[in-house]
Amino acid sequence: MAKPFRILFIDDVHPALTERLGVLPGVEIDYRPTIRADEVPAALRTAQGLVVRSKVFLDAQMLAAAPKLQFIARAGAGMDNIDEAVARSLDIRLFNAPEGNRQAVAEHVLGMLLTLFNKLREADKAVRAGIWDREAQRGLELQGKTVGLIGYGNNGQATTRLLYAFGCKVLAYDKFKTGFSDAFVKEASLEQLFEKAEILSLHLPLTGESRGMVNAHFLGAFERLQWLVNASRGEIVVLADLAEALEAGRLQGACLDVLENEKPQHWNSELMQRLFAQPRVLFSPHVGGWSVESYRKISEVLADKLLAEFFVDYP
Q1: What is the pLDDT of residue 158?
Q2: pTM of the predicted model, to two decimals?
Q3: Strand partners of residue 29
Q4: In the chain, which residue ranges form alpha helices assigned H by DSSP?
Q5: Averaged pLDDT, 15-42
Q6: What pLDDT is recorded for position 204?
Q7: Angstrom distance (rounded) from CA 202 to CA 68
Q8: Residues annotated catalytic, as ranges
Q9: Which residue among 52, 126, 127, 213 is least crowded, i.e. fewest CB within 10 A of its CB?
Q10: 195: helix, coil or strand?
Q11: What pLDDT band is residue 1 in, cutting at 50, 70 and 90?
């Protein structure tokens, strides 16, 4: 009798994935979302498949502990916690699900901008305190603003559709895409974004090139930029340079769903206190792509891909 094909889950995922893979003949689901990071190498020794979110960084040392591994499925959009080159050199196939959370990210970006533009946080606080000051809570409209997007993949495209519906002019730059201008967006160069963008929204993965890309020099190249939105990866924006631009009045505000360092012990740092002191900076805890619906969609997308591309000829 053939040994079972064992798929190790080391993070929590929606059951749509385990249910659809678990009915395959000979497939064994080893669901261990509470496993500690230091316990993962031992668990990987006999795994043929791995489903992960962000618990561990799958580098050469970690992958060396997985001699039978045939695929890694990341329940999310980015792949920055996987050494893709090493994985491919070991003939490990890689899957992710950027389609699953694109709408969640788009709506979160829009929600953060609308909250900041309309001073909803301040207005709610004032009314709860018995203060009815309409003039102090006068907001801005998104309509007519020029938004520059960097990165035009799944999240960038979904965000563009919503911004267009609000009457924004959307310009997008993507180093790896061309010819995508349509009724919703105009393809642009970085130089055109520097010249025209009033709002900048980041939609690119974390790579060696994008890490620290949005620094003082980069921000200084914009002629009209007033607002920054980052719902991609925190390490792309140098927060010290962002804080300085806000304090100097070169930017009016920022929406940050991600941070350079998201560990709680970092939140008491001088840098974070400077950002917390800025009333026109809005934070959320890396939940842009983590809606109730996207939690399910991500599992469904991964199941679709694995069944169509990996298990297609599986008995």
Answers
A1: 98
A2: 0.94
A3: 7
A4: 15-22, 40-44, 60-64, 84-89, 102-117, 120-128, 154-165, 190-196, 216-220, 239-247, 270-276, 292-305
A5: 96
A6: 95
A7: 37
A8: 233, 262, 286
A9: 127
A10: helix
A11: very low
